[in-house]
Design goal:
Elements: H1 13-31, H2 36-46, H3 51-72, H4 74-78, H5 94-99, E1 115-119, E2 127-131, H6 133-149, E3 158-162, E4 177-180, E5 185-189, H7 198-208, E6 212-215, H8 217-230, E7 239-242, H9 249-259, E8 263-268, E9 275-278, E10 284-286, E11 291-295, E12 300-305, E13 316-325, E14 337-342, E15 349-350, E16 356-357, E17 370-379, E18 382-389, H10 395-409, E19 414-419, E20 434-436, H11 440-443
Parallel strand pairs: 3-5, 3-6, 6-7, 7-8, 17-20, 18-19
Antiparallel strand pairs: 1-2, 4-5, 8-9, 9-10, 10-14, 11-12, 12-13, 13-14, 15-16, 17-18
Helix pairs in contact: 2-6, 7-8, 8-9
Bound molecules: zinc ion.
The site of zinc ion (ZN) has 7 residues, from loops.
């Protein structure tokens, strides 16, 4: 029984909690198995190395990856790319990988043994990323090392307010969360954050008293704003972590004030190419043991993940932009610094019942025949889904999208499709996943 799927949603709350804990126990071994502690110690040691040493080790790791790719990965092998000349490798975009993703899989792995994650990301192009179980443990080690930077070591308790589908979408009354005792997590739904429901979320956070709060900045912000409005200061985690969306300045200010602690920004990509993390000094560090990051003239990030050999992404255009800084950080870690990350600002969709919903790219992730998608909110109760189809798109895909959209937005939102050959960029060349045409006063709730 998998949370969010099958008959899970029809079970009573206590049985859903059993299912959540059962799934967590099963996943625990995959996440924190034989290799996890070794990775954790290795990553911690890297954080104390000098910049020269880090660069030398990164060069060696990169060279190893390039040799591996031209030997075992059909896409790179067919192009006869030179393993000693990284700059000669082509820049890849998501469409190229999505169009022939099988050719990016290493022949050394049996895909039945691999884990996978479906993504549509900020561009709306669906893609499946494959990785070995061992890499899954390394990814967990990277995440817990960042938590440790904020005083929350492995297995600290956390309240998560991100895309966990643990609460049925049509549930109208609390609890809008489930407790995972195995991993000490309060898994909160990010889809039920209506103005009416916010106070009971805050009660749940107060009772659970997590070591940290982790979530989409747009979701954590809604809670912070409610806490400020109600004068509540009872929720005191050691740190707040935000991920998956740009942490906007007004969101950070409201979050830090309401929770009485620092917000730590985490930036990653589902393709496992790039990891940028905020330290206690407020600097953004790029982990050189995670990936190689190149920045083009306009700041466009080209990233190469060093650790997932099952599906290597080499010189991959992430779609976001960043500015590098040559400073050193007072925290003592020599990982390179990033001045700023731009390009993941996602607007909200506002529903007629007053909810503000971000991170809607999820509604496209199980559909294979889409090149790009954009959500345009034309009226308070109307959305237009602009879609660039690829061959094979059928009415079935439309049904999947509509079902996913209504699950998150409710039935009062009218949704229509608009098929197009191209989705226009902004004057600055930027893709906007959500475009809101609502008058300013209807959006004000999400502004400071
Ligand atoms: Zn630092």
């Amino acid at each position: 029984m998998i949370p969010g799927k099958g008959i899970y949603n029809s079970l009573p709350v206590w049985a859903q909690t059993v299912a959540v804990n059962f799934a967590s126990r099963r996943n625990f071994r995959d996440k924190y198995g034989a290799d996890f502690q070794r990775f954790l110690a290795q990553l911690e040691a890297n954080e104390r190395k000098s910049r020269d040493q880090l660069q030398a080790e990164q060069r060696e790791a990169l060279h190893g990856l390039l040799r591996y790719a031209v030997t075992h990965v059909p896409f790179y092998r067919e192009q006869k790319l030179p393993p000693d000349d990284f700059a000669a490798w082509p820049v890849l975009d998501k469409q190229t990988v999505a169009a022939s993703s099988g050719r990016f899989l290493s022949e050394e792995f049996d895909s039945r043994q691999l884990m996978k994650i479906n993504t549509s990301g900020t561009t709306g192009t669906p893609l499946t990323v494959w990785f070995p179980k061992e890499y899954h443990q390394m990814e967990m080690a990277f995440r817990w090392r960042h938590k440790a930077w904020a005083g929350c070591p492995y297995l600290s308790s956390g309240a998560y307010i991100s895309g966990h589908p643990v609460v049925p979408p049509n549930q109208k009354r609390p609890p809008f969360w489930r407790v995972d005792r195995i991993e000490k997590r309060l898994l909160c739904s990010s889809y039920h954050l209506t103005p009416d429901n916010l106070p009971c979320y805050i009660d749940a956070l107060t009772d659970f008293a997590p070591d940290f709060v982790h979530g989409y900045p747009s979701s954590v912000y809604l809670l912070a704003k409610q806490m400020a409005d109600d004068g509540i200061t009872a929720v005191r985690p050691r740190a707040v972590f935000t991920a998956s969306e740009t942490l906007l300045d007004f969101q950070r200010a409201a979050i830090e004030r309401a929770f009485g602690t620092k917000a730590f920004n985490w930036y990653g990509t589902t393709e496992f190419t790039n990891n940028i993390i905020e330290c206690a000094q407020g600097s953004l560090h790029q982990r050189p043991d995670y990936g190689v990051l190149e920045l083009l003239g306009d700041g466009t990030m080209i990233a190469t993940g060093l650790n997932n050999r099952a599906m290597p992404f080499i010189r991959y255009k992430v779609g976001d932009r960043a500015t590098r800084s040559d400073d050193t950080c007072a925290c003592g870690c020599a990982f390179p610094l990033i001045e700023r990350i731009e390009g993941r600002v996602e607007d909200y969709v506002r529903t007629p019942d007053g909810r503000l919903i971000g991170r809607l790219d999820h509604i496209f992730k199980d559909v294979q025949h889409i090149r790009e998608a954009q959500i345009v909110q034309t009226k308070l109760d109307e959305l237009v889904l602009r879609i660039v189809r690829t061959d094979g798109f059928t009415a079935k895909d439309e049904q999947i999208i509509l079902k996913e959209a209504h699950l998150r937005l409710g039935d009062s939102m009218r949704i229509r499709f608009e098929f197009t050959d191209v989705i226009e960029r902004t004057a600055g060349g930027k893709f906007r996943f959500i475009v809101s045409q609502l008058p300013r006063e209807q959006l004000e709730f999400s502004r400071p």
